Amino acid sequence: MLTVSGICKSFPQKKGMVLSDISFSINRGEAVALVGENGAGKTTLIRIFSLILRPDKGFFSLNDKKYDEFPGYIKSKTGTLFSGDGSLYDRLSARENISYYARLNGISKRDFDAKLATLTDELSIGSFLDDRVSTFSRGMKQRTAIARALITDPDFVILDEPSTGLDVIASESVKTIIRRLRNDGKTVLFSSHSIDEIFSCAERILILHKGEINCDRTVDSFQSEHGKDLGFYIRDRNEALNTL
Asked: Looking at 27-121, which runs of residues are DSSP E strands?
């Protein structure tokens, strides 16, 4: 469903490539964890998939439709949660924020009501759904932003650190949602610093290190060889490369 080929990206203020020759694919109904240190290039890649940034080289396509030829299609099929999402409108309620995004994307009232009922239950946002966002805690804002990203029932779901600011119960809800999306046949790419979230929700792991993909393996394959030590894998590969 998602095909990424040779994506490169650099910025004038930074030395070297932020992303270098990024290539992979994700199938329908597959959840892939994007893992890497801070500054590895994860957010840059997510912004490219969300059409906020354009790659210097390479391309990606969704359902065989290239991003630069069918940008409207890509946007209509993609739902994105950005890390530290600050784009909620403080003067609006959670319901109004979610509704506004749904209306911008042409979602009918009947579909909106049905989808919101599901997300309200999954994310436990009913108690503050009609309160102003300006009164929310960080976790409440995060849950609202997740609901907004999913209200359009997107085929391609991007979640950048979805459990940030959430308590244990809400974090478990996020895991349940990722598994539900996968079972619904959605294509899911999520970044996370939570080992448990990665190994309990993803089928594949992509490790991004200094702008390059260091690892693209199934969770089972990775765990059978390295357990859950993602850091060891990066260090091990670096040491191996340095000896060449």
From this structure: 31-35, 57-62, 65-66, 78-81
